[in-house]
Amino acid sequence: MTVYIIQRVMRMIPLLFLLSLVAFLIIQLPPGDYLTEHINALRASGRDVDEAEVERLMKQYALDRPMHVQYLTWLQNILLKGSFGQSFQWGRPVKEVIGDKMALTFLLAILTTVFVWTVSVPIGIYVSVRQYTFTDYLFTMIGFVGLAVPGFLLAMVVMYFSFAWFGLKVGGLFSPEFELESWSIAKFQNMLTRIWVPVLILGIGGTAHIIRIMRATMLDELRKQYVTVARSKGLSEFAVLMNYPVRIAINPLISSLGFLLPWIISGGTVVEIVLNLPTAAVVLYRSLLSQDMFLAGSIILLVGTLALVGSLLADIALAAVDPRIRFGSVEEM
Predict the structure, then answer these.
(1) In this structure, how many other beta carbons lie within 10 angstroms of the beta carbon of residue 102?
(2) CA-to-CA distance for 271 and 198, rounded, in angstroms?
């Protein structure tokens, strides 16, 4: 197991550098940058531009240098100083802009995953052993509906009916009186009363998807001979299911945990915009529109890094659950 973990960590190191390069290239592809556009807008409006400040910023972030020098400067500041640069759009360091928002995004991702697994795994197991029954057809239909309905449309429907029928505004993670307040117990409690709406909306599609995966994998495992042998030994049906086919069928779900945060960022961006959530996905979207290169690049790099770490943890969990993985890894070495 130790050998397998070391092997996976060593493979991740070059991927991190490649990820940083890809993130930097993505934000450099559009022509121009936020600073240049901002200066041009100020000059077009007839306002004075502090040329000394502009020159200082250009030299500080190597914006007047070739692209490879800009990349090395950006990477050096991250590795040696822990600085992700300055957000020109917000006028603040990137760490201050994305600190709380990344934490809220991570919390939202965890709660959504707990909801999806808690609902979908038991349903997937149940319908697999009740194949072609009314319950199976019912959840299959619900699954197709959950996959077909876009999350942002569901968000707008929920917001409309909650306000029209109950007079409640479910957008945002905080009530108006807590939005600009510093963190406190009261603010955290207020967030917990409102976060269930985005968790439910973001989790609908994932729940429907995992139910179908769990059902298909379980049906495949239930037809194998080792299940028949386990039943012939006199084990209860529950013990047979939990000890054998469920342990195998759960593997694809564990492997999907590594893509949890990127799924929330990419797949849930429109939903989070509709619900007015203060998360990293909304900040990334706005920073890409405004070409705020350091803010956009830092979010992409952090999300990608968390995806790699999540993939590492998922592989370790798979190796712990399925011995074939860690034994195969040792044989390769």
Answers:
(1) 20
(2) 8
